[in-house]
Amino acid sequence: MINKALYQLYKKHWIELKLAVDQLPDELKPTHPLLLKIADEEGYKKAGCRIMIVGQETNDWNGKFGKYGIEQLQDIYADFMAKDTKAKRTLFWRYQKKLMSVFPRDIDSVIVWNNIYKLGKPGKRGRPNKETRSIQELHFNIFKEELNILKPDIVIFLTGPRYDAAIETYLPGVVISKVREGTVRQIAYLKHENLPDVAIRTYHPQYLNRLTSETSVFHGETPAITLQNIAEKSLWSEPGEKVK
């Protein structure tokens, strides 16, 4: 069972994580971690294409660490994914619809959201402080195992090149290489034993939104075009037909 495996993964690291966070001064403590849960496990397993969208970090996630436990946080995540809330009308979430529009209509696609940094700032935006980053690396280094449990067919990192070091931390040995449609900073292939054949990294949608076809050869539509080209070659021999 996917959710049971995710729960056991988080439980395995929870005590170490909590002890490390409890040692931080209050002003440095992170928000709660982003713990994944699939609302419809059978639907996820049967989906024609499972897509993981990876962001940077949460801008708060239910307040400062300590109020909620694993099961509560997983339920909060599943509830968030199931509802159309104000938070899901931001550029980050709207851009996902653009990416999904490139797939054939008869392919049943399902999205799971993740972040490269599982711990963010409570009530604030931006990269977590160095103390939080160190705690995640030492005590909550779970990104590879989440990939192994969820087995996505496609992974899209909407993190931008400044987060490549974080990707390399949680996927050691990852190869980041140039895609035909842009420079390696703009869009890149990611190759790693824990990643599927289709894995790309591009800018965060907030930055992509500034790039138009009138002002830049590489623009907000380019990642969707690239994804379509890669997916057609790697996943479907014909539109709507998944390669076994």
What would you note in describing this structure?
The longest helix is centred in the N-terminal third of the chain and has 21 residues, at 2-22. The protein has a six-stranded mixed beta sheet. The protein has a two-stranded antiparallel sheet with strand order 7-8. It contains nine helices and eight strands. Helix 1 runs antiparallel to helix 6 (143-150). The model is unreliable at 237-244 (pLDDT under 50). It has 244 residues and is α/β, with parallel strands linked by helices. 38% of the residues lie in helices and 16% in strands. The protein has one domain (2-242): Uracil-DNA Glycosylase, subunit E (3-Layer(aba) Sandwich).
**Relative helix content:** 25-40%
Text of the CATH class: Alpha Beta
Estimate what percentage of residues fall within beta strands. 15-25%
Radius of gyration: 18 Å
| Cα separation of the termini | 23 Å
**CATH-defined architecture:** 3-Layer(aba) Sandwich
Helical/strand content category: alpha/beta
Low-confidence stretches: 237-244
Choose one word for the global shape: globular
Number of DSSP helical runs:
9
- Tally the beta strands: 8
Give the overall pLDDT as a whole number: 91
Outline the biggest β-sheet. 6 strands, mixed
InterPro entries: Uracil-DNA_glycosylase-like_sf
Protein name: Uracil-DNA glycosylase-like domain-containing protein
Organism: Jeotgalibacillus haloalkalitolerans
